Amino acid sequence: MLSSEQNAVRRDLDCPQSFLLFLLFVASVVALPLCGQTLPRGPVVTLEGALEQLAERVAEIPNLHGPLRVQFFEDQAFAAETGKDWQEAFRNHLEKAHISVTEDAGANLLRVGLAETPTELVLSAGVTVNATEEVRFVTGPRTAFHAANLPVVPVRIEKQLVFQSADRILDAAAFTDGKGSGLLLLAYRGTDLSVIKTDATGASTQFASLAAAGVHTARDLRGEVSAAGSETSVTLPGRICHVGWAAAVDVKCAGAKVAWRTGMVLTPGCESGEWRLTADGADWSAPDLLQVAPDGPGRKGSAALLSDFPGPILSIAAAEVPSAALVVARNLQTGSYEVYKVTLACGN
């Protein structure tokens, strides 16, 4: 078994070449034959300490020169517990160890992984230097890596598909009026950008095309919709439109300096703390990951919640209650656009 003293190793080319397979191998076995010598180091008691030790070991690799491009691999359970703060912390420790980090695709690649055994978490880093693959490890008991300030009250994500359409949906918002509640959808129907009003069942009840107000298909497809009393407000690049839903639908648009949403924060009913929603990436050709992490400097490093989506996340907006949000995503398998209600619920 890897002990806290078996923290670093030099691997030559006669050892397995695939870093991912090696990482999975570490996670699945209790005893592991190591190539080369081990370098003893002090015991690991915190995640921050483990990251610092791993960065120091990388910096000590003979003939290694920066800058390095860092790629991370991690166990899903660990990702759900810590989010991605540990990755930024490791980059910072590398910089402190005088190894510069870059996003340049041509730079030497440093692969950093985290796997777990039944009793330990294993941080590992692999890089090729002069045709030799160098790997360094830091291990410690699983309990040592748990954040000390995990939320006391259990919180979970509930995700519900509430609307789907072949029309390209840019944004969604919840509304409540004297006639009931439903969704406001900002979507393209053909070439016309429109606002669609639905009832609680998802059936379309009213429709307003923005083409009559001079809004046509644009290269910049950003747009946000929100309920503003008895009217609907639509934010577009360089202009704001207002839609009235009286007997005759009234649409008026004017040029304006717009302010886009900067993030969505939820407050579950079982605690006073806020949780910030962010999408994992900007790749519109791949499934996306919604991360719900405790917000505020005093809660940084607490457990994060993760939820997979069938495609890229296009927008995140407020729902009708502080504990919920509306997430618009494109389903890459079906090609349809989908609106999900994401709720922070209390309990396991």
Account of the 3D structure:
By secondary structure, this protein is mostly beta strands. It has three domains: 8-145, Rossmann fold, CATH 3.40.50; 155-159 and 263-346, no CATH class; 174-255, no CATH class. Helix content is 12%, strand content 42%. It contains four helices and 21 strands. It has a five-stranded mixed β-sheet, with helices on both faces. A four-stranded antiparallel β-sheet has the order 6-21-20-19, with no helix packed on it. A four-stranded antiparallel β-sheet has the order 7-8-9-10, with no helix packed on it. A hairpin with a 5-residue loop joins strand 13 (239-244) and strand 14. Helix 2 (47-59) crosses helix 4 (85-96). The longest helix is centred in the N-terminal third of the chain and has 13 residues, at 47-59.
Coarse morphology: elongated
Major sheet strand order:
1-5-4-3-2
Please describe the biggest sheet, giving its number of strands, its sense, and whether it closes into a barrel.
5 strands, mixed
Backbone structural class: mainly beta
Examine the coordinates and then state which fold CATH places here, giving the name of the CATH topology of the largest domain.
Answer: Rossmann fold
List the total number of helices. Answer: 4
Q: Give the terminus-to-terminus CA distance.
A: 33 Å
The whole-angstrom Rg is 25 Å
Number of strands: 21
Beta content comes to 35-45%
Mean pLDDT metric:
79
- How many structural units, i.e. domains? 3
Written as H for each helix and E for each strand, in order along the chain, the element string is EHHEHHEEEEEEEEEEEEEEEEEEE
The residue ranges in which pLDDT falls below 50 over 5 or more consecutive positions are 1-40, 147-153
- What is the CATH class designation of the largest domain? Alpha Beta
Helix-residue proportion: 10-25%
Q: Would you identify the CATH architecture of the largest domain? A: 3-Layer(aba) Sandwich
